[in-house]
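Input/output pair, single chain:
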Amino acid sequence: MNLPPKVTDRAFARLHEIGAHAQGKALRVAIEGGGCSGFQYEIKLDDPADDDLVLEGSGEQVVIDEVSLPFLTNAVIDFSEELIGARFVIENPNATSSCGCGTSFSM
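Output:
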């Protein structure tokens, strides 16, 4: 069953901490060609577009363009804080393999 991506409460909380909505921005998650595995995630604060899928929680927004959406079906967008750093991460069940850094994948 194809479900839209899910955003964790931890990811929305981090967006709230950095004041994304207060700046009029949303977290954009997009897929681009490239990286060491064929596709890579682009994650940035951006302005929402009219044709984006908008996922909302805690007054914050995560947006995904219609080209990237099929690659993120059933994915989970989370925020991770570890000794090596903090970052938004994607748990993508569509990826058949991914690189060690977690920013690129293949399907």
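Helices lie at 9-17. Residues 6-106 form a domain with the Hypothetical Protein Aq_1857; Chain: A; fold (CATH 2.60.300.12).
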